[in-house]
Give the backbone structure.
Amino acid sequence: ENSGKAHISLGEILMVIWCAGMAVTAVILLVSNLHFNSKIRKTRWLYEKKTDSLPVYESDAVETPCLFGLVHPAIYVTKEAVKDPNVMHHVLAHETTHYAHRDHIWAVLRCLCLVLHWYNPLVWWAADLSRRDAELACDEGTIERIGEAVHAEYGRTLIGLACQGRGYL
């Protein structure tokens, strides 16, 4: 006999938990990226030297140079990087290599995987390893572009920039 109480299955409970976790993870990732986007847009100014394909902005909101943006990606550099033409050459080569590898798109796909599999620590670990692999592949591609003869100089630039900030965003 049905007593009028609704029966909720374990599958339905788990589905609600999974959807809630996805929503929370998506909101956190979206809000953090929108906040960063707002910060850089308020503090950026166009750098006089442009690359062939991307605008370059100087911004007080970035700790280290980066490529940011999905639809209209741009390179953002620090005041410290702008002061040294050699560092700027390495930074622009590095960030345009990220763009050539489409790393800004891969970053979004990593976030999508994190949203779908928010509960799985192995996916979070894989996303971090993927980001690290992208950096290593970018460094390798940059050295190929600028020449093997300056790889030690490029390495010193990377170490100097890593000491300035978090190393990645």
